[in-house]
Recover the amino acids of this structure.
């Protein structure tokens, strides 16, 4: 049994055989799914199906036997993300060209921390980051880095915001001394429906949940900027220290987009950093028709981008961009064994200088590949198809008295609920989602809006058709009516 792919003939043959067998097994699993998103097994049945005495036998079974086992128990129960019956989360299928890129990434296994672990990969990431800065309207002082996901991108931005504010405004060197004496008074502002990575980051950074001021949203689920202004003023009067505003460009549930121009005014007038969490909405820039929806993003001091959401790339693939690249200095530590200054002076770039990770994947290759493969035309079409689907489905629901729709979609999510005046409507909607999973292999989202349980279609997948949406609406109506009579 060969260990690695090398230049040797036997190893090359075996590599090819592994790939061919795996590829065949994957295709077979997709074929057998008949288009469903999931086999339908309950958690108990699933746990029983994969039960085994040990996953570490005394003697290895060899790859073929393990693949046969995986074909029996694992592959048939994996979520088929490209299925048009999957629309639960900001999580989708992988574009074909990015699966090919993943194979290159895993086989070569570059690590993006230092140049000598990733020579051309480093140069590619630098080039991709430059292109992204241009795409989102930043100038040449900007910079960025790939991260493990939107949560890490947000956390990175909040670290840079905190350090910038403490250095520039409080004249306190956080890197050297830790949090400033008045740290319990630091405040960041974000909408009440922003992503939970805000609170998580605040806790991790030693600021605590109390530092996160949740600003109410308006009827369109956008941050109420009049209230934001008021809350900042009140906090200043009370002796608190506002340092950061986070606008959400595509809220997790509704896809609503905060008014970045207004947020910019408020942030500038109060010496605050402005971050755009565009983990969801970053894809809108690719649509020629809808890109205006995210104007103002170029004004923000930092931006979270996620390529494993609207951009349909394999997990993980995310980046954080920063308007003034010098702010990354907050994350730079030099080590004799890794990122020597003498090398950097001679032009060897060590990307670890900008990252909270050390060992890091070459995810930039997926963006480099997919951007060139599809071009502006291809990307515009992909993104617009999912956005148009949301508009279509919203229009079907709003004229149907069986349903209430929460807001008109700005991006590609529709949140709605079956309603028949029955006091158990919450329970009916919950039942609908469970039955769709276990009886129809269909997975949709569920959330709560204004205290009521709602269903959610997150329409990232451009293969979803109007016909499919009509069929699902009829199915949901039928299941809801049956459930209402139970
Ligand atoms: C608005 C928003 N920000 C951040 C995140 C976190 O992204 P990730 O799951 O890639 O960490 C999400 C995830 O859904 C999100 O919706």
């Amino acid at each position: 049994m060969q260990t690695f792919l090398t230049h040797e003939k036997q190893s090359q043959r075996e590599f090819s055989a592994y790939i061919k067998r795996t590829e065949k097994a994957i295709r077979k699993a997709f074929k057998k799914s008949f288009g469903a998103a999931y086999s339908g097994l309950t958690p108990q049945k699933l746990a029983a199906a994969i039960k085994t005495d040990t996953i570490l036998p005394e003697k290895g079974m060899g790859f073929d036997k393990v693949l046969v086992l995986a074909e029996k128990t694992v592959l048939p129960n994996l979520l088929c993300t490209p299925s048009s019956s999957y629309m639960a989360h900001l999580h989708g299928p992988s574009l074909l060209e990015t699966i090919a890129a993943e194979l290159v990434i895993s086989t070569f296994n570059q690590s993006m921390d230092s140049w000598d672990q990733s020579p051309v990969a480093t140069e590619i990431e630098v080039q991709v980051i430059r292109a992204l800065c241009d795409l989102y309207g930043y100038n040449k002082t900007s910079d960025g880095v790939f991260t493990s996901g939107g949560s890490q991108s947000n956390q990175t931005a909040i670290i840079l915001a905190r350090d910038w504010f403490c250095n520039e405004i409080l004249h306190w060197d956080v890197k050297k001394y830790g949090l400033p004496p008045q740290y319990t008074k630091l405040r960041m502002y974000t909408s009440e429906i922003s992503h939970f990575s805000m609170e998580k980051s605040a806790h991790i950074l030693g600021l605590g949940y109390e530092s996160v001021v949740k600003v109410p949203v308006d009827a369109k689920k956008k941050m109420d900027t009049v209230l934001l202004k008021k809350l900042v003023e009140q906090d200043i009067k009370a002796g608190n220290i506002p340092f950061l505003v986070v606008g959400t460009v595509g809220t997790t549930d509704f896809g609503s987009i905060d008014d970045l121009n207004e947020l910019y005014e408020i942030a500038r007038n109060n010496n605050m950093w402005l971050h755009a969490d565009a983990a969801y909405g970053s894809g809108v820039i690719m649509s020629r028709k809808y890109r205006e929806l995210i104007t103002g993003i170029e004004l923000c001091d930092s931006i979270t981008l996620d390529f494993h959401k609207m951009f349909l790339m394999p997990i993980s693939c995310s980046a954080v961009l920063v308007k003034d690249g010098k702010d990354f200095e907050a994350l730079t530590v030099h080590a004799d064994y890794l990122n020597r200054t003498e090398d950097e002076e001679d032009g060897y770039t060590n990307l670890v200088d900008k990252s909270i990770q050390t060992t890091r994947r070459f995810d930039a290759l997926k963006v480099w590949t997919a951007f060139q493969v599809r071009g502006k035309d291809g990307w515009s079409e992909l993104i617009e198809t999912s956005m148009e689907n949301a508009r279509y489905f919203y229009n079907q629901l709003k004229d149907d008295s069986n349903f209430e729709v929460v807001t008109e979609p700005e991006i590609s999510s529709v949140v709605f609920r079956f309603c028949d005046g029955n006091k158990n409507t919450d329970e009916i909607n919950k039942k609908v989602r469970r039955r769709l999973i276990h009886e129809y292999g269909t997975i949709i989202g569920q959330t709560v809006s204004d205290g009521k349980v709602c269903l959610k279609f997150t329409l990232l997948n451009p293969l979803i058709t109007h016909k499919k949406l009509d069929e699902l609406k009829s199915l949901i109506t039928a299941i809801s009516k049956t459930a209402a009579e139970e």
User: Anything to note?
Assistant: Residues 103-370 form a domain with the Aspartate Aminotransferase; domain 2 fold (CATH 3.40.640.10).
